[in-house]
User: Which sequence fits this backbone?
């Protein structure tokens, strides 16, 4: 489990052309965003969308029909931005997790944070707390993520051991999943509870609005800032724990800050949209192949690509089917084979 | 020298084909007989002139619909009921909350618990687990299997089946006639004017054609817009799609006494706030027990929906 993520440690001399990757990725995301605003019911063309955006941004005075305006400004745009933000959070959290474990198979879900968030949300559904308002579920899920995080920190204690952290995460994930299943089993007769839990656990951007975005933005920004703050220490850790320690890296501090950043990123993403798996696996892996292992570039690229991927998945599912397909299902369909492929490659490398 | 193992003679092709054909015929015959038996045991009341088996002395109900029907068939039938479904007292799903005496056990579909009551008849439904059904039948317990819960025709089909099975055919017919009369009275109050398109939408799911909302809408003077748009059964419908439809009426499921609150919450939701329904007071909350009912609650839902429309039309909202 402790094999190196990349084949080479971060190099100060990045290969030519890699500096253009970030603007290119940003352009890619902009293209997907344009697509996301055009795709969907209502037969709205590019002109309609631009008029609506222009009127809200104070560029144009032209007015649009109320329904068209509501579709573009109140539904599609916040949904697209939220998908971007959640994708960015999961992508960056994945890069961070893989960096801290020095293993490309590490994924934020492995720490049990998503499962903890899910458990608290399901408790809310079971006891009717969700009836108090749309924020109740988000608040509970965030509470679950924080609870798991605190539990992990308590386990780590004074002695920082990545293997202990990893195994603690696996055990906590198993425990929270078992309790979630128990709650569902005890309430088996309540079909509406099962439906809600299933919908939530599959992950969705359905019905999300500006207010959701308002909550997500500061939390994800905080998580990203924390990630970038520890990027140098993560790069040094690539050379091995002993080397990092000898070079003056406080491993305990680094692990605690990384766990806090992961908790903030994954917790807020899960709280607002449900469980969306494997983005944190596919995206950093791809980003590392494109830009190399240095976290200075890897973290921003993972965030942008994560945002673009999740937005593309959400737009694609909206475009190809009238049925609401949860993006979490698509990311898992993409991610599971990717996981197996990486695992297979590792088996070849490590006899 | 190699030992040569004697090989058995290969069976002639004709024999193999013959055996295969015979097996296939036996399988098909078995399936046909089983299907016919199942159909007979399901919902066919005894024909006139046939020897009628005595009505069951102990009846266990495993569906809310059969709980309701058994209650409505009168005191003689009620006295023979030994178990009802666990949701019968849940106001979110049942229209006969607290009517069945607490001494009657509410069984959560456990085969063992059902068998312990030694019932002569167990009423189950398509959502009962296949294992429970197979177990009961293997133990020789007679089962009545209800399937299809999509409107008034299904309700009356099930009413006739249950009434016949428990030996209360006349009571069943009286119940159906009373419901038909209620619906006729509702239809009269609505008149033949133009019908308003409505969407029944809750938790991201819409009721399309072939659902109980078809009948509810019809008797409330509405049309089922989702059905008209080609949605069949209960299907997921995104908020964006709902807003693009811009329905004048959105019917939601709610829990009294918080129906007004639920209506306001939906009408204020981003996107939905721009629809005709939200702007003109067309978001109508109907208690979940009635809106989701597959029994007499459907009539209640149609009545409530009709009344609510009239009230709002009078108040000018």
Assistant:
């Amino acid at each position: 489990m402790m094999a190196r993520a990349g084949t080479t440690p971060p190099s100060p001399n990045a290969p030519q052309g890699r500096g253009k990757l970030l603007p290119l990725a940003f352009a890619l995301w902009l293209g997907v965003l344009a697509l996301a605003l055009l795709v969907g019911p209502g037969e709205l063309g590019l002109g309609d969308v631009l008029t609506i955006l222009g009127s809200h941004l104070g560029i144009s005075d032209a007015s649009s029909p109320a329904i068209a305006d509501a579709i573009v400004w109140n539904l599609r745009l916040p949904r697209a931005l939220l998908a971007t933000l959640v994708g960015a959070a999961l992508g960056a959290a994945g890069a961070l997790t893989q960096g801290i474990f020095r293993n490309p198979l590490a994924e934020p879900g492995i720490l049990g944070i998503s499962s903890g968030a899910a458990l608290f949300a399901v408790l809310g559904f079971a006891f009717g707390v969700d009836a108090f308002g749309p924020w109740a579920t988000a608040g509970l899920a965030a509470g679950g993520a924080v609870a798991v995080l605190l539990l992990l920190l308590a386990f780590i204690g004074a002695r920082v051991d990545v293997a202990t952290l990893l195994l603690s995460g696996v055990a906590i994930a198993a425990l929270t999943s078992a309790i979630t299943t128990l709650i569902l089993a005890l309430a088996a007769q309540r079909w509406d509870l099962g439906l809600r839990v299933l919908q939530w656990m599959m992950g969705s951007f359905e019905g999300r609005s500006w207010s959701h975005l308002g909550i997500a933005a500061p939390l994800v920004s905080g998580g990203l800032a924390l990630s970038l703050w520890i990027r140098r220490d993560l790069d040094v850790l690539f050379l091995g724990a002993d080397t990092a320690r000898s070079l003056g890296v406080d491993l305990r501090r680094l692990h605690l800050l990384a766990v806090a950043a992961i908790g903030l990123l994954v917790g807020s993403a899960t709280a607002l949209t449900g469980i969306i798996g494997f983005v944190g696996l596919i995206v950093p892996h791809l980003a590392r192949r494109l830009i190399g292992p240095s976290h200075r570039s890897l973290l921003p690229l993972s965030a942008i690509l994560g945002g673009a991927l999740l937005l593309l998945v959400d737009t694609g599912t909206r475009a190809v089917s009238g049925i609401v397909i949860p993006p979490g299902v698509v990311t898992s369909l993409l991610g599971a084979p990717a996981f197996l492929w990486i695992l297979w490659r590792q088996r070849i490398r490590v006899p | 020298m190699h030992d040569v193992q004697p090989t058995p003679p290969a069976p002639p092709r004709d024999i193999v084909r013959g055996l295969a054909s015979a097996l296939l015929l036996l399988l098909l015959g078995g399936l046909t007989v089983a299907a016919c038996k199942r159909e007979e045991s399901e919902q066919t009341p005894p024909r006139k002139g046939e020897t009628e088996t005595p009505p069951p002395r102990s009846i266990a109900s495993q569906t809310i619909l059969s709980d309701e029907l058994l209650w409505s068939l009168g005191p003689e039938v009620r006295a023979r009921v030994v178990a009802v479904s666990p949701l019968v007292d849940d106001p979110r799903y049942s229209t006969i909350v607290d009517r069945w005496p607490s001494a009657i056990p509410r069984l959560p579909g456990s085969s063992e618990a059902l068998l312990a009551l030694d019932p002569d008849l167990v009423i189950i439904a398509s959502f009962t687990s296949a294992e429970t059904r197979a177990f009961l039948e293997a133990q020789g317990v007679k089962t009545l299997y209800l399937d299809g819960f999509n409107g008034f025709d299904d309700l009356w089909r099930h009413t006739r089946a249950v009434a016949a099975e428990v030996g209360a055919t006349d009571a069943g017919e009286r119940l159906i006639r009373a419901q038909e009369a209620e619906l006729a009275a509702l239809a009269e109050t609505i008149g033949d004017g133009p019908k308003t398109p409505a969407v029944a939408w809750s938790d991201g799911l819409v009721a399309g054609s072939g659902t109980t909302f078809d009948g509810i809408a019809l008797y409330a003077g509405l049309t089922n817009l989702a059905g008209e748009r080609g949605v069949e059964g209960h299907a997921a419908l995104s908020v964006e799609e709902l807003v693009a439809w811009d329905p004048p009426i959105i019917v939601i499921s709610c829990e009294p006494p918080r129906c007004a609150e639920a209506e306001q919450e939906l009408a204020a939701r981003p996107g939905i706030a721009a629809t005709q329904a939200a702007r003109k007071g067309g978001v109508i909350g109907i208690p979940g027990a009635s809106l989701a009912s597959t029994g007499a609650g459907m009539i209640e839902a149609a009545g409530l929906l009709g009344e609510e429309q009239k009230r709002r039309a009078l108040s000018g909202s």
About this structure: Chain B has two domains: 59-179, 192-315. Chain B touches chain A through 27 residues (CB under 8 Å).
